[in-house]
Write a structure and sequence with these properties.
With about 210 residues, the chain is mainly alpha-helical. The chain is built from 9 helices and no strands. The longest helix is centred in the middle third of the chain and has 27 residues. The radius of gyration is 20 Å and the shape is elongated. Keywords: DNA-binding, Transcription, Transcription regulation.
Length: about 210
Amino acid sequence: MTDSLDTTPDRRPGGRTARIRAQVLDAVRAELAEHGHEGLTMEGVATRAGVHRATVYRRWRDVGGLLVDVIDAAGEIAWEPPDTGSLRGDLTALNQEIQESLVVQPSFAVALMAASFHSEQAARAQTQLWTDRYAQCEIIVERAVERGELPAQPTDARSLLIAATAPLYHQLVLLRADPDPHLPKRAAEAAVLAAGAGAFSVRRTRPL
């Protein structure tokens, strides 16, 4: 067991504090993947992480705090939306990334989503993460407009992105089906065809 977490204001971000955080969050992910959110406990996380449970309680307070930090950590990862030169290519590449991430640790993904229904803290953090990710990906649609791939009428970027990516979550998370190597491209192409037909166009109302 290690000693309690250093909480001094001048602690080094990349030092011992960061190392302990990484150990604990890795333990949370492993516990979720193995036991689901129902089996996630502060004691179990502390034991797996090899830190004193007082450290975990002081830093994260409760299971909700652990879940929030795991979700926050996902948002801290340096990531940029794909830029392949076409809307179809960008959405396909995005879907391939999503599919790969869900295949690597499907039980963790399912458990984390389930946990958001039992923790208000986790639900808020997860909503913010998704909001930020979709906002970050709106550049894919903006580039497509600049290239003339979409109608001149303004496009609801978020609706298009949701339509393109939703089949992956439906197949792998809701149905828990085997990954289909062709699904990322098919889902992207369907969304592109719908967008080209104006399905996601924002229709402006005329003032009275």
